[in-house]
């Protein structure tokens, strides 16, 4: 009992659990004070990625050369940033605080949560123009021709995958490699957004970044899909996630979408249009098309799942 009331013991414990308090400090500050997009350093990162691609990704080059150029550009940008962050980490006076700042920069959970709330109410008001414009800021697919049914599906997919990539996976790589790992993962997400192979001008240049991101997503998204599937019939949802998710174009995303579709009885997937070209995607889940109520429910359940994820990650750091 005396140890619990001793401030010195608490200071020693806090010093030993630097990564734990850095995690919660970053999440707390991010939720209260998310970094606005116009002040995010990733806007300059995307601009540089676009500029670099314009110099080495030529339509007249052979596909093999463009594919190699994409891999080398990824190594150049990712390797340079990794060296800079690792070197900086060795110079700072407080590594936990440094990790907390990097994690705060890497997180984008609050904006995607607000996105879910805003687009749900736009759908409820049948304001297709506002919903399409909001969706266009988050996806690379064309949104101008989407009906309310298509908007609902795209919004649910964006909310699920956005929460996973901008929060769950970021925290997972924070556990593995600290703030440096979290920021490097987020940097890769932004590179993929710029160099996505779904744009014809970046195929096959963006294949390297897309494949690396999909590989890194498998474990954290698979684990998070298990949390999302926890309900009255978890094994049924997990079975559906395994059967349908492996037919999706990327394994981690497929598991998460299929588990969520099964648990909330939602119909997801289906065709999508990228730069005027219709792409056939696997239909996933079963049930109703996501509407306002389903998006708000999904947003609430994702928040609960993220809190469970944070609790489990905290236990890992303590142990």
From TrEMBL:
<comment type="pathway">
    <text>Cofactor biosynthesis; adenosylcobalamin biosynthesis.</text>
</comment>
<feature type="transmembrane region" description="Helical">
    <location>
        <begin position="68"/>
        <end position="87"/>
    </location>
</feature>
<dbReference type="GO" id="GO:0048472">
    <property type="term" value="F:threonine-phosphate decarboxylase activity"/>
</dbReference>
<dbReference type="Pfam" id="PF03186">
    <property type="entry name" value="CobD_Cbib"/>
</dbReference>
<feature type="transmembrane region" description="Helical">
    <location>
        <begin position="171"/>
        <end position="191"/>
    </location>
</feature>
<dbReference type="InterPro" id="IPR004485">
    <property type="entry name" value="Cobalamin_biosynth_CobD/CbiB"/>
</dbReference>
<keyword id="KW-0472">Membrane</keyword>
<dbReference type="GO" id="GO:0005886">
    <property type="term" value="C:plasma membrane"/>
</dbReference>
<dbReference type="GO" id="GO:0009236">
    <property type="term" value="P:cobalamin biosynthetic process"/>
</dbReference>
<comment type="similarity">
    <text>Belongs to the CobD/CbiB family.</text>
</comment>
<keyword id="KW-1133">Transmembrane helix</keyword>
<keyword id="KW-0169">Cobalamin biosynthesis</keyword>
<keyword id="KW-1003">Cell membrane</keyword>
<protein>
    <recommendedName>
        <fullName>Adenosylcobinamide-phosphate synthase</fullName>
    </recommendedName>
</protein>
<feature type="transmembrane region" description="Helical">
    <location>
        <begin position="295"/>
        <end position="318"/>
    </location>
</feature>
<feature type="transmembrane region" description="Helical">
    <location>
        <begin position="20"/>
        <end position="37"/>
    </location>
</feature>
<feature type="transmembrane region" description="Helical">
    <location>
        <begin position="212"/>
        <end position="231"/>
    </location>
</feature>
<keyword id="KW-0812">Transmembrane</keyword>
């Amino acid at each position: 009992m005396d140890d619990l009331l001793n401030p010195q013991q608490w200071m020693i414990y806090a010093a030993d659990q630097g990564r734990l308090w850095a995690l919660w400090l970053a999440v707390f500050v991010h939720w209260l004070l998310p970094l606005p997009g116009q002040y995010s350093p990733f806007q300059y990162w995307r601009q540089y990625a676009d500029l670099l691609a314009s110099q080495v990704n030529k339509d007249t080059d052979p596909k093999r050369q463009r594919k190699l150029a994409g891999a080398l550009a990824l190594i150049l940008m990712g390797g340079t940033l990794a060296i800079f962050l690792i070197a900086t980490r060795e110079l700072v006076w407080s590594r936990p605080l440094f990790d907390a700042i990097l994690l705060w920069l890497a997180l984008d959970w609050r904006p995607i949560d607000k996105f879910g709330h805003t687009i749900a109410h736009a759908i409820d008001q049948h304001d297709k123009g506002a919903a399409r414009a909001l969706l266009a800021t988050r996806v690379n697919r064309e949104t101008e021709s989407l009906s309310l049914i298509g908007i609902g599906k795209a919004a649910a997919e964006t909310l699920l995958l956005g929460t996973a990539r901008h929060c769950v996976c970021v925290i997972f790589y924070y556990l593995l490699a600290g703030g440096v790992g979290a920021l490097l993962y987020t940097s890769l997400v932004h590179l993929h957004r710029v160099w996505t192979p779904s744009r014809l001008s970046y195929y096959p240049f963006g294949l390297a970044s897309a494949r690396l991101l999909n590989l890194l997503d498998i474990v954290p998204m698979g684990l998070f899909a298990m949390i999302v599937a926890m309900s009255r019939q978890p094994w049924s949802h997990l079975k559906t996630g395994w059967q349908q998710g492996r037919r999706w174009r990327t394994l981690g995303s497929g598991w998460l979408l299929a588990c969520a579709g099964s648990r909330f009885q939602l119909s997801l997937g289906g065709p999508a249009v990228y730069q005027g070209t219709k792409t056939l995607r696997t239909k996933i889940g079963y049930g109703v098309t996501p509407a306002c109520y389903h998006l708000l429910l999904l947003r609430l359940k994702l928040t609960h799942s993220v809190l469970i994820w944070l609790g489990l990650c905290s236990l890992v750091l303590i142990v």
